[in-house]
Predict the structure.
Amino acid sequence: MVEIAVMGYGTVGSGVVEVLHKHAESIAGRAKAQIHVKYILDLREFPGSPYEQKFTKSFEKILSDTDVRIVVEVMGGLHPAFDYVKACLEHGKSVVTSNKELVAAKGAELLKIAQKNNLNFLFEASVGGGIPIIRPISQCLAANEVVEIAGILNGTTNFILTKMIREKTTFEETLALAQKLGYAERNPAADVEGLDACRKICILASLAYGKHVYPEQVHTEGISGIRPADVEYAAAWGGVLKLIGQVKRMKNGKIQIIVCPMFLSRESQLANVDDVFNGILVRGDSTGDVVFYGKGAGKFPTASAVVADVIDCVKHFKARKYLYWDDGSADYVENYLDNHVSLYVRAVTDDETLAFQNIENQIGAVTRLTRKGADPGEIAFVTKQATERELRQGLKTLLGLGVQVQNTVRIGEL
Ligand code: HSE
């Protein structure tokens, strides 16, 4: 019998306890041991719960109980999660977490402590919910050099963009619907401003390239500035608009990493990843493109990944799973302004003919886009490839030439 504790009885925590209870027999068969939840840590009361006897408000009780060999951290947030997880690893307990904020900020540090103490620190559920992605990158694709990873990593924003595309609604009204349906949090900033996707691409980048990438190193843009006009121009261009987290290794050893909305061609394997689904494309030098698709959030999909990690911990008490990356460094991430991109641009002008003359003088030939029902003076175009710095400087000079840029979106080559 293996005793475990679950810290946090929210959506994911209650799912973990339920899955462990419901599938106890088959899980015991796979783990070759019964897994028993001894404690559930939560500050709230759950009177009448079938697990009422297991609840505790005392982290110390869990920490000091030497019978508890695995702790599941599903509280979310950085504090006290970091302090608790660190203490567990320092006290000989393996840890499984779904907490992407924790792994993205402190992964290297916690992996080091786990390694030193010959314990496991596993986090399959932190990216893509129920989609297997951490294990495939660290094990199944281990023979590859990862050329690139790009993904739709946030279900809430994908739901919002899909609705905006299909139903021609505004960002604000679609966000309100997402909140009503329980997809978006009441404070949706982490989702809509791209921070959640940023944390996830940081974890994947750290894992794929062996060195920690911190969220504050990543240029991150969300979707709150996207207007229905941009969605329509994406369709006119021949694609869809998606929020993408992307990382590539450069020849000089640095990485290019970004989170931002992108126009994707309809032929892209990520273009049809819709609604709350996630899709992650891993481009390996030997495998070519491998795409992972499924539910990136939700009680049972996420619990499924957490419980699988618990089983893996039980099976690897003696032989630690090799999961590791080094600390990051300030010069590891290329400035996004030095990346080569082409941009979609939406602008307004009083004189369209003169505007396009000035645009082509400043930034070279562009491809014009049109849409039905465009506002008076509205123009849109896609630039050729250049460094983002050159393109942005060119666009800035246009302001003095009667062209007011309203929005830009990068063109994704995926
Ligand atoms: N808020 C996240 C999403 C939950 O919408 O994808 C899963 O990390």
